[in-house]
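Methods, example record. To illustrate the input and output format used throughout this study, we show the complete record for LysR family transcriptional regulator, transcriptional activator of nhaA. The sequence lines were provided to the predictor; the line carrying structure tokens was produced by it.
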Amino acid sequence: MKLNYHHLYYFWQVARTGHLTRTANALHISQSALSGQIRKLEDSLGYELFIREGRRLKLSEAGRLAFSYAEDIFRQGEELAAMFASGARPNREVLRIGAVATLSRNFQEAFLQPLLGREDLELSLQSGHLDELLRRLSAHRLDLILANQAIQGDDQNPWRSRLIARQSVSIIGPPGLESRDGFPAMLSDRALLVPGAENSIRQAFEQLCDYHRFQPRIAAEVDDMALMRLLTRDTGHLAILPPVVVRDELRNGTLEDYGALPGVYEEFYAINIRRQFETDTIRELMAQPADSFLGLNSESENQPQASRVTSPGT
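The corresponding predicted structure is encoded as:
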């Protein structure tokens, strides 16, 4: 089979917009001619590349794979044109990474550290709600998502979630507080900063409190970890946090870790689309040991760490 690159180009343009009519207008051809070109490509490949949903076209599983190859082919073609036009030599890999807005900035920076400063790589870093990031991933506008929850894929959305790190969640606060014995004594009569109600850390913390029949005194619930970091540093309240969020403050003594909460963890996931190939850059990121980017109190699922905040019977 000899691939017709004109047909592939038309497919690539339609896949980027999801609209046949809009793409036909942009390419200055008729909608029927554009549709015919795509049908010829589908016939030559032996697979349907689109699924029609109302007035939009959605990529099929075969279409996703074809689009990933077309994206590389035509992006390199654009780089070639830019190289001759400017006399420069672009030849830089582009890696597009999304992160949920509530994810620790310290974690993100440390995880991406091996890529920072590479002259042969252009990083595009995007932040948003997980649903929106998943839509961008499905449209091949992202290569990887960093999140604190796993996502279940299916035939229509072949997402793959991989656990890259797991860290205990601690009681964090100003240094020098009286260290009471165990949970929940350490929190008794003290105002708390906690993550928002939909956060998995908050849900695990509430289950722990229910088990101990303890009612915490909540000063504020905060969705954004960057704001949580500032409030923990500046208010004098205790906070329920993964240590990586306040890594620098713990190192310089501005804050103190009063111990890990039993059974309360934050997990970090990398989400991408299952495909036949994976770039060397992504493989390099995924091969990092968790200790290299968590830095403080990291623990794997198979290596539990002792905690000063204990549950009954420990």
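Annotations derived from this record:
The first helix runs from residue 5 to 17.
Strands lie at 50-53, 56-59, 93-100, 121-128, 144-147, 159-173, 191-195, 217-222, 238-241, 256-273.
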